[in-house]
């Protein structure tokens, strides 16, 4: 990241970054200045007047149809009788006629003054093709639960990767972005939580396993989300959490076309904790000390001075920049002749960190090429190559440390002293800003290179043989150089270097046959595949003699540490799919896959994964009433059942391993020690049984489409490590133990219509899922330190497990009655807890409750888009109707852990005798806080939210303007990502944050401008 902006000062200092980009801004301003007058100038009247009438094939007049001269801005709408009149620039002009539910038609005027135009009804779904496993299907013939993402709705969003853009767009697809730190990875789930094991979906990119974070969004042609067994079982052993299929763009016949996209953005936090001013802090600190039986700290004179002179420091704001720049460039070239087409694309993304410090941020480079040639009438070859590099520079510490330290510091201490030295107040030996600016750096470079060769041979009409060979190479390097900071407790110069090389190969051979006999259509496919790979990692650690060294050669050789890992894996598979379609009414599909995995011992390696589904297009029946067909022209119901698998455990879990260490001293002799890990040689596949029922409906000539789903997933033989007694001594072996049920529903709708020349698109989705542990061999699995969760039969996975808050102790009589935490006597204003067993004492073993969980429910998304005469506007709302987050420590507790801070604005509403209905208990410090700091429902917050995820305004210049500068398209736009959020979360934390101490890098709001150029 050379010549990049190190910080953007909020006090009006000149930004070097934006100075470097002034040429781009001037061009943008030029485009805007050209666009503004165009909004106010009406279309120029030509010398030719044409009139006409528009009807459908039933000779019914079409009212409100759009009639536009191609290449110009003049347009009109038909009246109630389907008639129109329009001035043209030329007697040989071409008209474009469009209406919702009908095919767009172009008509040459050819010197005529009167036209009669007939437009044809079109069910767009009839032609829409959906990408499925190892092929494609017409959407109307799909019998499984598949969602296709509208890529046009994702265009121009100022996001770093496609995962962020997908959030809220697809029912059942749960994406949680807990922070926006460069290099962070949002979590992805399809239809909730099915297992106690890994719940990540399988991601297939152009036919091979891939990393969705490394795909450039503008390279994507389509995304399909496979959610049930009918659609996913063809992928067998890794499909129990659903499958995301990504197909990248190809070239098309014609002259070379060049496309360039540019986005320039500024990032700011959506939320930051609101620290109280220094004088308020001093008053509340005195109150907490007094309540705890300690002398007060601040005199009235000091408080008065704080009120008048500050300093009102906020360390959280001091470690972040006021804003951080972000930019993205995308360039592609495509074209082709009669036999060969090509596409070449490249992209560069630069996201700078919000943290202050030397050159922190992420740089990503993408390159992709797709070449396809028709060697002969029967033989076709396709070659794809892709490369991405993610280069990340960050501080050398854990982000949680830095934010924790900054959060604890009260507003009375500036982060730097008057002489510019870093401040270490209250006996602290660390300063977050010092660590960021002087504590060293962690840099990583991750390369992802893949190549794919596809070949297809047409043996006979309908009979095809396809083959594919794909290879991937991941090469990751990390170098961490942590430096000693003078005057602090960070006294070591240390360096860590690591590298990882992963190489995978995928091959498959598929024979397919498609045939239609009258009303009978039969499609079948059978194939074989092999996937395998190696994983080699090495890590070394050294202590350095001097902070100036940045190579291992400056190390103290006596302080070393090296580790090395090597893994191999493979899966052999055979698969089959058969489809039968009778008269486009009755649809049947059967899938079968056999996987043989190296993760299990011989005898347990093979498993079969079948699925079957059926669909009924009721609207195609002869008995379907004509009146109903006019209202609901398209109606289909479908159902599916099947088995899918999960083998996501570490390699070699069925084999006993020995760990050799340096050992222990016995007398003067060091003896090496070998320890063992207990294993289970009888491990077998984890299996999920899926049932799905759904319906697809079309209304208003299919301008309005609605889909709904209900599903039940039962996962059994779950691969988990159930805790064993500590005396066992051999680690916790993986077992097939446990069963989880996951139920849910989804609904999605889309409506396209036109009013007064404005094209409108409205879409929305709503989904919910809930899991329950059915069997865990009668055991409870309690996890966590700051936050306790439990896995217990009859409750959702990882439910919060704590005391239930029962109000405040308001009077001395209430205090006397209890109940008490074991060993603690509360006081008025302290939290009171529900005594579950009625013994008068609150104990962890007896009085904890299951109190919900972090996983979001009732997810929804709503998108509205409009276009008029080149102007386009869109807004996308996304949210969660039900979610709980348990915040602990510095994120919510005043004077946590006997520290001097934090004190947030919501702590002002604390319990006092005159404020008995406060939002926070009485203020205390040290041991006096033990009662209130106990793990209870008081700290579990409602994290439901509604967010304006994206709002965008753009303008596309008319062709008569772009033709003058040899462009085929020019669009400028401005956009805001995470523009607005409604949430009841207190403390200034984003509602998507993770539970725990709130030690989380913020979620960013991004302001952007951009342009799209096509040549």
Automatic annotation (TrEMBL):
Membrane topology listed for this record: Multi-pass membrane protein
Entries under SUPFAM superfamilies matching the protein: Carboxypeptidase regulatory domain-like, Porins
Keywords from the UniProt entry: Cell outer membrane, Membrane, Receptor, TonB box, Transmembrane, Transmembrane beta strand, Transport
Pfam families on file: CarbopepD_reg_2, Plug, TonB_dep_Rec_b-barrel
InterPro entries: Beta-barrel_TonB (IPR000531), Beta-barrel_TonB_sf (IPR036942), CarboxyPept-like_regulatory (IPR008969), Plug_dom (IPR012910), Plug_dom_sf (IPR037066), TonB-dep_OMP_SusC/RagA (IPR023996), TonB-dep_OMP_SusC/RagA_CS (IPR023997), TonB-dep_rcpt-like (IPR039426)
Record domain TonB-dependent receptor plug: where: 139-243
Domain of life, source organism: Bacteria
Compartment(s): Cell outer membrane
Transmembrane segments: none
Keyword presence, Transit peptide: no
Membership in a protein family: Belongs to the TonB-dependent receptor family.
Protein name: TonB-dependent receptor
Source organism of the structure: Sphingobacterium alkalisoli
């Amino acid at each position: 990241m050379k010549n990049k902006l190190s910080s953007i000062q909020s006090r009006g200092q000149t930004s070097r970054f934006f100075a470097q980009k002034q040429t781009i801004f001037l061009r943008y301003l030029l485009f805007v200045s050209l666009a503004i007058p165009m909004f106010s100038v009406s279309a120029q009247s030509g010398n030719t007047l044409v009139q006409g009438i528009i009807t459908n094939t039933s000779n019914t007049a079409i009212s409100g149809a759009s009639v536009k001269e191609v290449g110009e801005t003049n347009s009109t709408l038909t009246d109630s009788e389907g008639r129109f009149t329009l001035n043209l620039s030329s007697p040989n002009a071409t008209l474009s006629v469009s209406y919702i539910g009908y095919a767009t038609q172009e008509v040459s005027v050819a010197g005529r003054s009167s036209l009669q135009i007939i437009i044809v009804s079109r069910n767009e779904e009839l032609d829409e093709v959906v990408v499925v496993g190892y092929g494609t299907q017409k959407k109307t013939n799909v019998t499984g639960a598949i969602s296709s993402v509208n890529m046009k709705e994702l265009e121009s969003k100022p996001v770093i990767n496609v995962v962020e853009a997908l959030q809220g767009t697809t029912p059942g697809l749960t994406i949680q972005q807990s922070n926006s730190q460069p290099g962070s990875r949002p979590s992805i789930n399809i239809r909730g939580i099915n297992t106690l094991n890994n719940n990540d979906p399988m991601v297939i990119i152009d036919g091979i396993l891939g990393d969705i974070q490394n795909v450039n969004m503008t390279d994507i042609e389509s995304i399909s989300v496979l959610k049930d067994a009918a659609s996913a079982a063809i992928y067998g052993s890794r499909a129990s959490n659903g499958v995301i299929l990504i197909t990248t763009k190809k070239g098309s016949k014609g002259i070379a076309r060049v496309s360039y996209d540019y986005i320039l953005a500024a990032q700011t936090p959506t939320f930051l904790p609101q620290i109280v001013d220094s004088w308020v802090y001093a008053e509340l600190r005195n109150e907490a000390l007094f309540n705890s039986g300690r002398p007060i700290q601040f005199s009235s004179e000091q408080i008065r001075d704080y009120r008048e002179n500050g300093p009102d420091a906020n360390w959280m704001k001091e470690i972040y920049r006021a804003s951080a720049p972000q930019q993205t460039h995308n360039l592609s070239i495509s074209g082709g002749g009669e036999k060969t087409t090509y596409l070449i694309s490249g992209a560069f993304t630069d996201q700078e960190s919000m943290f202050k410090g030397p050159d922190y941020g992420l740089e990503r480079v993408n390159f992709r090429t797709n070449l396809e040639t028709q060697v002969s009438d029967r033989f076709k070859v396709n070659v794809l190559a892709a490369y991405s590099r993610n280069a990340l520079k960050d501080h050398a510490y854990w982000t949680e440390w830095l934010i924790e330290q900054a959060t604890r510091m009260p507003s009375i201490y500036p982060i730097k002293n008057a002489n510019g030295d870093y401040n270490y107040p209250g006996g602290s030996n660390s300063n977050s800003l010092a660590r960021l600016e002087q504590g060293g750096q962690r840099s990583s470079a991750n390369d992802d290179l893949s190549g794919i060769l596809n070949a297809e041979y047409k043996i006979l009409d309908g009979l095809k043989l396809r083959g594919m060979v794909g290879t991937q190479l991941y090469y990751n390097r990390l170098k961490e150089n942590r430096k000693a900071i003078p005057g602090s407790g960070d006294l070591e110069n240390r360096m860590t270097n690591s590298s990882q090389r992963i190489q995978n190969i995928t091959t498959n051979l598929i024979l397919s046959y498609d045939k239609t006999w009258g009303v009978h259509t039969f499609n079948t496919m059978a194939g074989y595949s092999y996937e395998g790979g190696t994983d080699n990692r090495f890590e070394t650690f050294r202590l350095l003699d001097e902070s100036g060294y940045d190579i291992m050669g400056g190390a103290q050789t006596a302080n070393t540490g090296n580790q090395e890992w090597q893994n191999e894996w493979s899966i052999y598979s055979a698969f089959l799919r058969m489809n039968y379609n009778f008269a486009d009414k009755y649809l049947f599909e059967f899938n079968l896959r056999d996987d043989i995995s190296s993760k299990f011992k011989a005898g347990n390696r093979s498993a079969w994964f079948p699925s079957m589904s059926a669909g009924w297009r009721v609207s195609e029946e002869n008995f379907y009433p004509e009146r109903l067909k006019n209202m609901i022209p398209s109606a289909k119901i479908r159902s599916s059942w099947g088995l899918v698998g999960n083998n996501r455990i570490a390699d070699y879990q069925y084999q006993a391993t020995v760990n050799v260490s340096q050992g222990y001293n016995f007398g003067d002799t060091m003896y090496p020690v070998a320890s063992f890990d207990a294993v289970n040689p009888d491990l077998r596949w984890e299996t999920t049984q899926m049932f799905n029922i759904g319906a697809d409906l079309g209304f208003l000539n299919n301008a309005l489409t609605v889909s709904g789903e209900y599903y039940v997933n039962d996962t059994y033989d779950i691969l988990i490590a159930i805790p064993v007694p500590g005396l066992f001594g051999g680690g916790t072996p993986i077992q097939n133990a446990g069963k989880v049920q996951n139920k849910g529903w989804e609904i999605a709708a889309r409506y396209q219509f036109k009013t007064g020349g404005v094209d409108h698109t409205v879409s929305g989705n709503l989904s919910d899922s809930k899991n329950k542990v059915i069997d865990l061999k009668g055991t409870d699995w309690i996890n966590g330190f700051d936050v306790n969760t439990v896995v217990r039969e009859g409750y959702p996975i990882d439910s919060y497990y704590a005391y239930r808050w029962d109000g405040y102790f308001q009077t001395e009589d209430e205090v006397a009655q209890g109940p008490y935490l074991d060993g603690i006597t509360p006081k008025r204003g302290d939290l009171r807890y529900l005594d579950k067993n009625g013994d008068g004492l609150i104990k962890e073993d007896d009085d904890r409750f299951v109190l919900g969980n972090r996983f979001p429910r009732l997810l929804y998304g709503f998108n509205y888009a409009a276009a008029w005469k080149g102007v386009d506007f869109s807004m996308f709302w996304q949210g969660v109707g039900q979610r709980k987050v348990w915040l602990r420590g510095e994120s919510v507790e005043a004077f946590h852990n006997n520290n001097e801070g934090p004190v947030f604005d919501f702590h002002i509403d604390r319990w006092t005798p005159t404020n008995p209905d406060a939002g926070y208990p009485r203020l205390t410090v040290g041991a006096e806080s033990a009662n209130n700091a106990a793990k209870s429902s008081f700290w579990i917050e409602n994290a439901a939210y509604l967010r304006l995820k994206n709002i965008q305004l753009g303008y596309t210049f008319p062709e008569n303007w772009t033709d003058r500068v040899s462009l085929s398209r020019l669009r400028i736009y401005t956009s805001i990502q995470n523009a607005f959020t409604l949430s009841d979360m207190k403390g200034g934390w984003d509602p998507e944050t993770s539970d725990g101490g709130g030690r989380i890098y913020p979620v960013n709001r991004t302001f952007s401008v951009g342009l799209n150029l096509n040549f």
